[in-house]
Amino acid sequence: MNDFANDGLARNFLAGSWAEGDSGAVVSIEDPGLEEHLVDCAQAGEDSLSRAVDAARVSFDRGDLADMNPHARGQLMQRIALEIRAIADEGANLLCRESGKSLSAAHDEFEEAAQYFEYYGGMADKIEGKSIPLGPDYADYTEFEPFGVSAQIVPWNFPVSIAARSLAPSMAAGNSTIIKSPELDPVALAMLGLALERADVPAGSVSILNGIGADLGARLVASSEVDQIVFTGSVPTGQAILRAAADTVTPALMELGGKSAAVVFEDANLDTVISSLQNGIFYNAGQVCSAMARVLVHRSIYEDAVERAAALANGLSIGHGLDDPDHTPVVSALQLSRVEELASTARHDGVRVASGGARLDRRGYFMAPTILADVDPASRVAQEEIFGPVACFTPFDTEAEAVALANGTEFGLVAGIFTRDLARSHRVARKLRAGQVFVNEWFAGGISTPFGGVGKSGFGREKGLEALFNYVRTKNIAISLKG
Asked: How far apart are CA 471 and CA 229, in angstroms?
């Protein structure tokens, strides 16, 4: 068996073994902090995908996971968590260098991945049906059964943790899984295969393939052998996947984009707001679907909030991820160009640039930490997902106006409220069009709290107990006892 990587080539984890790309094809991976080649990764194509799908189907039909004693399946997942932690130092170093994120953030990602397997491993023997009373002449009950082959397409912003977020409940439920990794930073995710291999995951039950989304991803979701699709990424790609899923009538779980708003009332603790802003928009260079992208502030404290936000942005340490600074590069030259173009458009439209607003004059794909003030709620920069370190500030006067502004996009992933008034926090939270609402701390919650959106932010829920039931379907069994 080939190792995960040697001779400068990272390989795909294909049905329990390590495989090179179709016809030797590779994807060149770049270090965005240095703008230089890092490593090559095997590029899977039609042949690799066919082998992975066939192996997944055989593994599922054989019952490798579905027929495994649920307690044993949970123990297997606990072993995976241990093996993820064993590779975390090497994996975090790779993830930092290929994605641009800070080393501590990369370590956090591997730790979160391990925790997903612990959390859902603990649920593997608790997927319980129910008895339904139909009177003395019948016995009626429900069972939950796995879908079969789950196809999962993972984004580049948090490849390891998001892959684990979907893979862990999929395995807990007994599905076979094929993961399509992001072509911008697939190497650390491929390393997850090492943890699976060392934990003795049944061959064929999981494959991790790197390939070009328009080719490999499109082929995967269009396959008639796929029983479920799980996608995290952009709205246009999600829409294309849903069109393909319609042809095969394949159920899909969609976690798409966001343009989330924080509503800052006049009684808010601004220290808390600024602390949340640092995590909410500058963590991972703002490349977070649930980023604190819009900040709606009561007019009475608006200028103070903008001034303090600009001071925060101007005071962040900036550098390569290995140096573990506050602010790191975006993932690619293309991403940097998009972020800068939107910021430039806002500036030409008369938006006040309180800090940043352009790329930094240094090696690497660095966008300056940016605070835009007096942003028109109808403008492009307020309506489109930037996916970069850019926060848009807009004032409001009344609670009703704040709610209307917060709900004034096509997205509905998360939202935030900052206030000391408990009654108002409950009242406003119910009115906000979002799948998750943070109060007085952006990114409050965790693995056990359900996450997902409404509108163009998608549908279905990841994380928490609720997510587990996205990976099973209900079967009702009704038995007549009338002789």
From this structure: 10
Q: Which domain holds residue 275?
A: 261-446
- The residues, ordered by sequence, that sit 6+ positions from 220 with a Cβ below 8 Å of its Cβ are 49, 53, 151, 153, 178, 180, 226
Considering the domain architecture, whether residues 60 and 160 belong to the same structural domain is answered as yes
- The catalytically annotated residue of 41, 96, 289, 392 is 289
Confidence of residue 7 (pLDDT cuts 50, 70, 90): confident
Catalytic entry in 98, 112, 255, 340: 255
Angle between helix axes 159-173 and 103-121 (nearest 10 degrees) is 10
Cα distances from 421 to residues 11, 336, 427, 448, in angstroms, run 54, 39, 10, 26
CA-to-CA separations, 80 to 167, 210, 381, 456, in angstroms, rounded: 11, 21, 42, 34
Q: Using an 8 Å Cβ cutoff, are 52 and 105 in contact?
A: no
pLDDT at 214: 87
Neighbours of 444 (CB within 10 A): 13
Mean pLDDT of the chain: 96
pLDDT reading at 1 higher than 70: no
Q: Which of 317, 358, 153, 141 is nearest to 240 (CA)?
A: 153
Strands (E), 216-260: 228-232, 252-255
| 451 located within any domain | no
For residue 146, the tally of other CB atoms under 10 A from its CB is 22
For the packed helices 187-198 and 159-173, what is the interaxial angle rounded to 10 degrees? 40
State the Cα–Cα distance between residues 295 and 141, nearest whole angstrom.
49
Among candidate residues 287, 386, 306, 387, the one with its CA nearest the CA of residue 345: 386
On whether both 350 and 313 belong to a single domain, the answer is yes
Q: Are strands 17-19 and 149-153 parallel, antiparallel or unpaired?
A: unpaired
> Is residue 255 among the annotated active site residues?
yes
Asked, for residue 456, whether it belongs to a domain, the answer is no
CA–CA dist 143, 109 (Å, integer) = 34
303 is annotated as an active-site residue: no
pLDDT above 80 (res 325): yes
Please determine, for residue 2, whether its predicted confidence score (pLDDT) is greater than 70: no
- Any domain includes 416: yes
Note the pLDDT tens digit of each residue in 81-95: 999 999 999 999 999
Q: What is the pLDDT of residue 383?
A: 97
Total domains present in the chain: 2
Q: Which amino acid is at 73?
A: R
Rounded-to-integer distance, Cα 261 and Cα 337, Å = 24
Distance in angstroms (rounded) separating the CA atoms of residues 483 and 481? 6
- Give the span between the Cα atoms of 283 and 277, in whole angstroms: 9
